[in-house]
Design a protein that fits this description.
The chain has 15 helices and ten strands. By secondary structure, it is α/β, with parallel strands linked by helices. Helix 5 links the parallel strand 4 and strand 5.
């Protein structure tokens, strides 16, 4: 099994010899060079960090490995989280790995079927509440003071520490630091973590730091609006969050890097989603395409230099949200099992 993020990056993480090396083989995800999208817009150094190939299918596994390890070290018996789906899937998987109980609270109608199925398959106790993710997070934060319970949302500092390892990997794989990094933003923890990782590399290895560009969905863009959104709406359920827990960290990443946080429409997200699948062979959930949608817009406006290395983070696998994959598609009608019939369809 590939060494997990704790084993690989122990020297840069808040662990000791007493911290268990919990892993499902997370990390070491590929950095895929664009073969068609980049060249079509004049970018020949465009790369995709494909985090959907983590064990539970999303970037959450990096932080969850460390959060679970520290929970076990502290004697916890239950992992607790609120989730739009990916956190619940990841927490449930790592709880099962370590013999812990997982309790996940999700908003009614706000979780893609694939993600909910994962949590149930891993044996989690799933509670569905009427309301938004933000309401669910408020509830679990109040429950987290129970003995033996570890809250593993991104408010848990070990989650951010684990997720920063993706920035380390990008530099290892690319060699230079990317000039710009595009990333979806929901609760704000991931952009906070990447920026922390790049800043640590800058201090320890005298490296440059990229501009950070965060993409929120138009109907769930509190950081763009500068105030919480009471009823966030977007097809990209993973970033359907109205009051990000890591608000300050996300804004700091934007401002300190000289980057941006912008809103993209659901139409732009789904257009990028289709291009990733059909032009790059990369199957992602809708939220993962938000950063690519923002890149396409900024490239069209002339804000991206053709000679710069650019990275887009693809946060979750497409099978997380099977409904999104088939939306607007028609299944082909059956044909007779003859060569003539097949040739007639193929042309």
């Amino acid at each position: 099994m590939t060494a997990g993020i704790i084993e690989r990056y122990a020297a840069s993480l808040p662990v000791t010899a007493a911290t268990p090396r919990v892993t499902l083989g997370e990390g070491s995800t590929p950095l895929v060079r664009s073969s068609r999208i980049g060249p079509s817009i004049g970018l020949h150094q465009l790369y995709f960090k494909y985090e959907g190939l983590n064990p539970s299918g999303s970037f959450k596994d990096r932080g969850m490995a460390l959060a679970t390890a520290k929970a076990v070290e502290a004697g916890a018996t239950t992992l607790l989280c609120a989730s739009t789906g990916n956190t619940s899937a990841s927490a449930s998987a790592y709880a099962a790995r370590c013999g812990l109980r997982a309790v996940v609270v999700v908003p009614a109608g706000g979780v893609a079927a694939g993600k909910l199925a994962q949590a149930l398959a891993h044996g989690a106790t799933v509670l569905i509440v009427r309301g938004s993710f933000d309401a669910a997070l408020k509830l679990v934060r109040q429950l987290a003071d129970q003995p033996g319970v570890a809250l593993v949302n991104s408010v848990n500092p070990f989650r951010i520490e684990g997720q920063k390892t993706a920035a380390f990997e990008i530099v290892e794989q690319l060699r230079p630091v990317p000039a710009q990094l595009f990333i979806p933003v929901g609760n704000g923890g991931n952009i906070t973590a990447y920026w922390r990782g790049f800043c640590e590399l800058a201090r320890s290895q005298s490296r440059s730091r990229p501009q950070m560009h965060g993409a929120q969905a138009e109907g769930a863009a509190p950081l763009v609006r500068g105030k919480p959104v009471a009823r966030p709406r977007t097809i990209a359920s993973a970033i359907r969050i109205g009051n990000p827990a890591s608000w300050a960290g996300a804004i700091a990443a934007r401002d300190e890097s000289g980057g941006s946080i912008e809103a993209v429409s659901d139409a732009e997200i789904m257009a990028a989603h289709r291009r990733l699948a059909r032009e790059e062979g990369l199957l992602v959930e809708p939220a993962s395409a938000a950063g690519v949608a923002l890149l396409l817009r900024r490239a069209q406006a002339g804000y991206v230099r053709s000679d710069e290395p650019i990275v887009c983070v693809l946060t979750g696998h497409g099978l997380k949200d099977p409904q999104a994959l088939t939306r607007g598609l028609r299944l082909p009608r059956p044909v007779e099992p003859t060569l003539k019939a097949l040739r007639g369809v193929i042309g």
